[in-house]
Amino acid sequence: MRLLNPKQIWAIGGGKGGVGKSFITGNLGVMLAQRGYRVVLVDMDLGGANLHTWLGVNNPDRGVSEFVGHFVENVDQLLTPTGINNLSLISGARDGMEIANLKHTQKLRFLRALQRLEADCVLLDLGAGTAYNTIDFFLLADTHLLLAVPEPTSIENAYRFIKNSFYRKLRSDGNEQGLRDAIEQLLLLNNPQGIRTPKDLIEYMHRQGGTLGRFIERQLEEFQPQLILNQVRNAQDMRIGSAMESACFKYFGLRLKFLGHIEHEDAVWHSVLQRRPLVLDQPNSGTTKRLSVICSAILQQRSQHPRATELTSAGGP
């Protein structure tokens, strides 16, 4: 087993609640740990943390809020054993109200603390929606995993999550490179250039060339979220992942990589009720096998394109 270098941070997000983010995060974490990687799961569903339940761990008395509030200065003190070799958990905030709007400096402090952990891979289980906290932690990660189910509301929210994340990244990186005013003008609802979609914006900046052209090229290279389709029931559902990949490029001009799908399976609900990760409870199930393929694909991509987490890539609220 080759240790990951540098440490990888994976973010698992999605615009809609109930699509299985905690289930996927927990099981991917277990799978990585089984392969010999040192893994830390972080429940970033602030105020609605439940990742410990999926893992069969009692509710920890310390979590993200204690670190943000400086009640705990060393993030190592937040680590909770899961009973699984190589796998630890950092629980989410017990009271989301107190950290609903983290400052930029607080986000960077927490991410830097995560980077100092003795771990190979840190998985962030993000909350639902498109709040700045959620999007910024999604962007700060090395690997951006987007989860959806084959339902209209979930698909629509996934597209919204992609669009809002891309625009957030443009604003944040543009601010750092002295392009803040130019980017803000282009993102105005009634901008004079007639830009209405991410694709319009990308094409306009390409036409301008120079600094703007180089800037958008780098943004497109860095922003390539990866889609996992969960709770698939039939052949029609299976085609949705590839369709979303094509539609995202056609209408947004953005590359969304479809990693694969997870079929609806009774074994999943059994593992939830038993509070035991599926990959342990049903190691030979179809879901476990598909998760294994997806996990291997992510690891292969990261080994080919390693980079350290850029902690300054997300701006403040």
Walk me through the structure.
With about 325 residues, the chain is an alpha/beta fold. The chain has a domain of about 210 residues: Rossmann fold (3-Layer(aba) Sandwich), CATH 3.40.50.300. About 45% of the residues lie in helices and about 15% in strands. The protein has an eight-stranded mixed sheet, with helices on both faces. A hairpin with a 5-residue loop joins strand 3 and strand 4. Helix 8 packs across helix 9. The N terminus and C terminus are likely disordered.
Strand order of the largest sheet: 3-4-2-5-1-6-7-8
Low-pLDDT residue spans: 1-5, 306-317
CATH topology of the domain at 8-150 and 225-242 and 255-304: Rossmann fold
- Name the overall outline: globular
**Could you tell me the radius of gyration in angstroms?**
19 Å
Q: Note the run of SSEs as H and E.
A: EHEHHEEHEHEHHHHEHEHHH
Tell me the total number of β-strands.
Answer: 8
Strand content: 5-15%
Q: Give the class-level CATH name of the domain at 8-150 and 225-242 and 255-304.
A: Alpha Beta
Major sheet size, sense and barrel closure: 8 strands, mixed
CATH architecture of the domain at 8-150 and 225-242 and 255-304: 3-Layer(aba) Sandwich
Oligomeric state of the chains present here: single chain
Helix content: 40-55%
Which class of secondary structure composition applies to the elements? alpha/beta
- The CATH homologous superfamily of the domain at 8-150 and 225-242 and 255-304 corresponds to P-loop containing nucleotide triphosphate hydrolases
> Helical stretch count?
13
